[in-house]
Design a protein that fits this description.
Blueprint lengths: L2 H23 L23 H7 L5 H29 L7 H17 L6 H10 L6 H8 L7 H24 L8
Helix pairs in contact: 1-2, 3-4
Protein name: UBN2 domain-containing protein
Organism: Hibiscus sabdariffa (roselle)
Pfam families: Retrotran_gag_2
């Protein structure tokens, strides 16, 4: 790494303290080594070359921060776009309701972590739109509500509906066939 890069990172860390050092170095100040007299921390931690090359030409810490924000914000937008695309393609198909809802919840949680949380209404619409025609009756009832249903309540209602459907199908397939002999 270039000496000027290390020097800049030192100045940058001193200006922005813990938050910035954590963001750039991937470490907290506590994990950085201390000098021999234990009064001043040493900031000679390794910095990724991508980060060094991105900020080494910055003349101010604000310029460096803006450069880093631009560099990593684009990755966040790409991640959100990818997750939204994945979410749009999730449908129940032949999966159980529990598997379908788990798949949706995993993507929704990742979206929230990436900075794009979904509202309850958006989540309800996504879940109901991917169920298929066998759930049209319960979808109509939920859509007619004056307020959105919570994920937990929707989960319970859909699981109950699936159990009822499975039970009815089982009864139809196992009902005795009666022959009338004349």
């Amino acid at each position: 790494m270039h000496k000027e890069g290390v020097s800049f990172v030192r100045r940058y860390c001193l200006l922005f303290k813990v938050d910035c050092a954590y963001s750039i170095l991937g470490k907290s100040f506590d994990s950085l080594s201390k000098s021999k007299d234990d009064k001043e921390p040493l900031y000679d931690a390794k910095v990724d070359q991508t980060v060094t090359f991105a900020i080494v030409k910055s003349s101010t810490s604000k310029e460096a921060w803006d450069t880093l924000h631009t560099l990593y914000a684009n990755k966040s937008h790409t991640k959100i776009f990818s997750l939204q695309n994945t979410l749009a393609s999730v449908t129940k198909q032949s999966h159980s309701v529990a598997e379908y809802l788990r798949d949706i919840k995993n993507v929704v949680d990742e979206l929230a972590t990436a900075g794009a949380p979904m509202s309850d209404i958006e989540l309800d619409v996504k879940i109901l739109s991917g169920l298929g025609p066998e759930y049209d009756s319960i979808s109509a009832v939920i859509q007619a509500r004056d307020f959105p249903i919570s994920y937990d309540d929707l989960y319970d209602k859909l699981i109950t509906r699936e159990l009822l459907r499975t039970h009815r199908e089982h009864i139809k397939s196992s009902s005795p066939i009666i022959f009338i002999l004349a």
